[in-house]
Design a protein that fits this description.
Layout (H helix, E strand, L loop, with lengths): L1 H13 L48 E3 L3 E4 L17 H12 L7 E6 L6 H21 L7 E5 L12 H7 L1 E6 L2
Parallel strand pairs: 3-4
Antiparallel strand pairs: 1-2, 2-5, 3-5
Helix pairs in contact: 2-3
Length: 181
């Protein structure tokens, strides 16, 4: 009788009380990362395998370094009729500054301003030079040594498209960043 009581006591003593499992998925709440949603042990109690969110692709580069120039993938915008750089062009110019800082320290860079043929030529030449100088000032504020930079204004003298359409005039209003003399 004593052995029977001892056996019953051992069986009773070894019986365990189940740990709480609110969602009844077989993973105790203390080990369950999703205690209110049924899952499985592989997902630590969460439903399905949670895949990491993929990183979005990087935005396309705004600036490409060529042998003789920085290829600006978008225009530098200015406030109409002025040399004040439009804030939407700051990221582009920040990328240009970073690209220039990556070039050898002795590299000289010419910032050239161009306009369309609307208005007086002399005013356009002056405006294109002022815009080139504004870009130089911006680049210097971003760490590019001023001694490496020069500004040139060509006004309407070097068009890259006909000035007889708005699209052509928009192409001619540009800033170029030339590497070398």
């Amino acid at each position: 009788m004593l052995t029977l009581l001892a056996t019953l006591w051992v069986c009773t003593a070894t019986a365990t009380v189940a740990a709480p499992d609110y969602d009844r998925d077989g993973v105790p709440d203390l080990e369950d990362d999703c205690p209110t949603d049924p899952g499985d042990a592989i997902g630590r109690g969460c439903p399905g395998v949670v895949a990491p969110t993929p990183e979005p692709p990087p935005p396309p580069a705004r600036v490409a370094v060529q042998a003789d120039r920085l290829d600006l993938k978008e225009p530098v915008f200015f406030q109409t009729g002025s040399a004040r750089i439009d804030p939407r062009s700051f990221p582009l110019l920040d990328d240009a500054a970073a690209a220039l800082l990556g070039l050898p320290p002795a590299t000289r860079v010419a910032i050239e301003g161009h306009t369309d043929d609307r208005g007086r030529r002399a005013a356009n030449v002056r405006l294109s030079l002022q815009r080139a100088q504004a870009v130089v000032t911006y680049l210097v504020k971003r760490g590019v040594p001023k001694a490496r930079l020069s500004a040139r204004g060509h006004g309407p003298d070097r068009p890259i498209a006909p000035n007889d359409t708005e699209a052509g005039r928009a192409q001619n209003r540009r800033v170029e960043v030339l590497i070398g003399p």
